[in-house]
What does this fold into?
Amino acid sequence: MLNLIGNYSLVFALITSLILAVVSFINFKSNKSLDFNIFGAVVLQFTLICVSFFTLIFAFIYSDFNNAAVYYNSHTSKPLFYKISGTWGNHEGSLLLWVLVLSLFTLIFLFKSKKLFNSFRILTIFFQQIITSGFLFFILLLSNPFQLILPTPNEGLGLNPILQDPALAIHPPILYLGYVGSSIIFSSSLAALTCKYVNKDWAAEIKKWSLISWIFLTIGIMLGSIWAYYELGWGGFWFWDPVENVSLMPWFCLTALLHCSSVLEKRATLQSWTIILALCTFILSMSGTFLVRSGILNSVHTFANDPERGVFVLIFLTFLVLISLFLYFKFNNFESKPKSFFLSRETAIIMNNWFMMYFLAVVLVGTVYPIFLEVFTAAKISVGPPYFNQLIIPFLIPFLVLMALGTKLDWIKTKKFKLNLNRIAILILSILISFFIVRNLNTKVLFLSVLISASLYLLLISIIDLKNQKFKWSQRISHLAFSILVISIILNSIFSEEFSVNMKVGQEKIISNSTINFEKISKQEVDNYTSIKAEIEIKQNENKLIFYPELRLYKTPETITSEADIKTNLFNDNLLVVNYLKGSDYLNIRYQKKPFMFLIWFSAVMLGLGGILGLRDKLK
Amino acid sequence: MRIRLSFIFLFILVSSIALIFYKSLFEEKNYIPKNINNKIENISIKEFNTENIFFLKNLFEDEKFMAINIWASWCLPCREEHQYIKNLSRIDNLKLVGLNYKDKTKNAQKFLEDLGNPFDIILSDTDGTKSIFLGAYGVPETLILDSELKIIKKHIGPINSKIIDEIKNLTN
Amino acid sequence: MKSFKFIFFLLFCIFFNLNNVFGENAKVDEISKNLRCLICQGQSVYDSQSEFALSVKTLILIKLESGSSEKDIYDFLKSKYGDWIVYEPEFNNYTLILWILPLFLFIFGGFLIARKVIINKR
It folds into this structure.
């Protein structure tokens, strides 16, 4: 019964969507105003998708194994929280969530854009409905979450325990809010192109939406990293895994767009480039979904893959790209740009965009290159962290310095760009400090000291700029946050230390200056798994730390996960994780010291906060 | 004119990228190394349950080919394939070598007692490093080598009668 | 003044963390981090606890003890399992575009910007 309701409300949502597309197009052609029917239909569509989504949640809560999605991804013994998050933990449910957010955003756009040009609004709704109906078709035809299983099984297959984690439970919805937010940017830029509305008003409008997407994307990426750090137990938070890269690409594009749209807003220039960025953001989000869902990428995070689904998304994606190409070339004739001096804020922002695009290119090429190579030559290669590090880190140096200098410049023309003694003093100070930091290292001293000097310089400048009333709080906060993020990531990767040993209960080992004592082990039955807790003491000089890492043996499906024990303080994380070694009574013990982890999370949150402040300014 | 040209260029670019993605949708995603025709070093391996050490080349008597089957008692598919291994031992011209992978001697002996021992000789790879020389990465895995220790066939996973027929054809 | 305090605090922390700890086989760890595990294809050999990964680690240790260089070990494993096993793509004909394309795009972007700025200046 519930399944039928869910299924049919989706069908009706699709019909509404198609009708809306037609009606809005007719309204646009006949230059009619946005009539009440469109409002009604958008509300109706949102309600229908909501109904469908909530029936699916109910099916998960009440473990209705008649529903295939529930059967494959849930189990009666699962805690309620993970039953609910299981709704979007699988392919079908996550797509439903995607469409839900899509229709929600369409609704919000409709209500919040009343002051804007009428044709522009109608056309945005039109493009938005094309996207919505595409996704609804996809759900109904190829990934229906309301498929039935007959006869009804008694018990479900369970959710992969590695996914049973609070950060991961809320990670997909947040990331989707980011991805889908960019759909409005996409539709509205196509609309603005078509009705020649690429102006300051439009820039202010998409700035709001890009801030929304950007906030969610930033937080979403951070949650993904938090999950990887705490749950995978490898002590890393970023692996340059394809799935991670795929979320990073729209982030680079959005960051560029955020900066670029303020140029358009203030100076009415760079129209073409803003449009290109706006279109690319959504296309990259969509390609990300395509690459992940189709199983083309070989990654830790595998979704069930089915080439048919891949074909559908691919065709839809290509269709959207070609439409935007066509519209771009048809309507791309903007007025000549006002002049600006090259030492201006505009140039600084263009520089930002230049580097953002470079980072994006590295990530994009590195992620899809193996796919292309395989098609052409059948050779298989891996593109891993060394590639990304080698191409990105050296470029950080000019990027950070430019970022520190860029905020000094004024719009149009900087009249008195005199060398400020303070700033030179800060530069010298950062160079000195960085020499102190790296003097004990034995590799790449020169390179690292330059890198650290650059990031310290940016950090110090951002701290000083905090007092500068010239800038908005959002900018001050997010620039400071970014500089803290960069420097903590750099220092983290340089000063991380670790070792791994295999030990039995009761053993004691000495590794360089640490003594490891494997004290004891205890077993306990919890909810839906068996917990094996070890007690391990690590002594370094006078410091003594006792860790309680855990192994969890899940029964449905049968999996072992390792829960690291992490001792966090402001400047240092001590992390210890044990792994089960098959066929022996030894455990693999891995101890890691990771400096500045807290600062990394803190600055990522602060970065998001900067975005929220910016959004508040825009909505005022 | 220039605008139209760049449009056409981008149009073709996008379409061909889409085409490449389309093609790759149907490619095998899991990486399986293809090291057919690789020549293996003439490594020495300890015999199972004894202290004798053999060089691979010295194992040939008058056979022209050698089959190396990597197995372990803890590996369930190995139990399944064991009946087919017996068929493999009937092929003339083929030296059948078992390589016991990361196993406890006691368990391995029990395995052979329960299911029979079809191998001409069993070698032992206690730490798994010998299998790396063979380019193998799991159990069960079966390799066919010629007298120059060149890999002429490799099968990952349990073998079946179809694979046995293929091996028969190869060694004739 | 506050910022100076912060810096000194930062320095303080850094210096007291510099007592590097290394594992029993730091070199093995270093090499195995650059290798991709074949069984669990998203993980490095270092991170993986699969039988294959453990064997590879043992083999690296044996090879190191017998005097092989890091490069020898990578080459050996590449000859057995293909280029796929190393995370760092070697610079060769196959990967030429991989390494060059982003740099080319960077230069191209710089060229476009330079042209725009020069035109504006006129």
Observations:
- The radius of gyration of chain B is 22 Å.
